[in-house]
Amino acid sequence: MSNSKIAIVTGGSRGIGRDIVLNLAKRGVRPIFTYNANRTEADKVVALAAEAGVKAVALPLDVGDARAFDGFADRVRVALAELGADRFDYLVNNAGTSSGANLETITEAEMDALYDVHFKGVLFLTQKLLPLMNDGGRIVNISSALARIAMPNRIGYGPIKAAVEALSRYMALELGPRRITVNVVAPGAIATDFSGGIVRDNPDVNKAVAEHTALGRVGLPGDVGPVIASLLADDFGWVNAQRIEVSGGVHI
Ligand code: NDP
Predict the structure, then answer these.
(1) What range does the domain containing 111 cover?
(2) Burial category of 60 from C-beta neighbours within 10 Å (exposed 0-12, middle 13-18, buried 19 and up)
(3) CB under 6 Å to ligand 1: residues?
(4) What gap in Å lies between CA 208 and CA 204, rounded to an integer?
(5) Looking at the domain assignment, is residue 47 inside a domain?
(6) Which of 1, 39, 58, 90 has the lowest tally of Cβ within 10 angstroms?
(7) Using CA atoms, how far apart are residues 218 and 212, in angstroms rounded to an integer?
(8) Residue 115 designated active-site
(9) Domain presence at residue 60
(10) Structural domain includes residue 251
């Protein structure tokens, strides 16, 4: 049985989650990660982790469907057994989708979907997985700079991420007796497929973000993954209930 740590990362098939998975693998942490629909990309991440000498396991999960979480916990048990373990150490709640609605256009259905994925998903997936988590473990919930700054067309997304930040502090309080820390990483605009790839592919948006960022460019997945891998390392054991923005200094 290996003694290396095991992390569960949601949304590890693409973007920021993929970079988190690969940075953990580089450090010898064994990732169990989820994808929603994109099995092909998930398989590529498994292959890249194997190149780094680490066995990763990819599992399908819709984080917006809390009724599926009991079944997912059962699949995690099986995956842990494959890795020769019965518990895991780290949970990164990363998976998410965007919404471009404003006050005039947002619908109840769109808000419900955001709530399901970004809030209920984080709360109830964590609840279902906690019995499988080692005491002394770590949780990182992914928020957004948009929880701090208000931007047009983010009336559902920004506030729901702010709610995740409050939720994280409550989780930290309740999990203290188990020595489990809960922190938030809030990326700035990162060039991924997110929001139809707007930050990466729309030159006007890309330039506008860069102009409002102290370090003068948009973020890349590789700016975020190593931060989370570091946060999960032993050196950060006394950092708890904190929000760390990883944005190069956007709108400061
Ligand atoms: P991407 O669109 O690049 O990747 C999204 C990932 O989440 C994919 O792995 C996708 O799986 C998965 N996913 C999407 N919807 C669901 C769902 N309903 N259930 C389970 N998995 C799902 O996004 P990013 O990497 O950019 O974003 C990751 C996180 O970072 C999100 O929480 C986002 O809100 C946050 N964030 C992103 C910023 C940005 O500018 N990119 C800025 C600030 C925060 P699949 O491949 O199968 O579709």
Answers:
(1) 6-246
(2) middle
(3) 10-17, 34-38, 41, 61-64, 94-97, 117, 142, 144, 187, 189-190, 192-194, 199
(4) 6
(5) yes
(6) 1
(7) 9
(8) no
(9) yes
(10) no
Instruction: Report the separation in Å between the CA atom of 1 and the middle of ligand 1, taken as the mean of its atom positions.
Output: 33
**Number of domains present in the structure of the chain:** 1
Q: How far apart are alpha carbons 25 and 56 in whole angstroms?
A: 8
Q: Tell me which DSSP letter residue 143 carries.
A: -
* Nearest atom (ligand 1) to Cα of 98: 34
Q: Which CATH number do you get for residue 188? A: 3.40.50.720
Question: In order along the chain (252 residues), what is the average pLDDT of each group of 10 residues?
Answer: 86 98 98 98 98 97 98 98 96 96 97 98 98 98 98 97 98 98 98 96 96 98 98 96 98 96
Q: Give CA angle at 233 (219, 214), nearest 5°.
A: 25
User: Are the beta carbons of 92 and 228 closer than 8 angstroms?
Assistant: yes
Q: How do beta strands 30-35 and 6-9 pair?
A: parallel
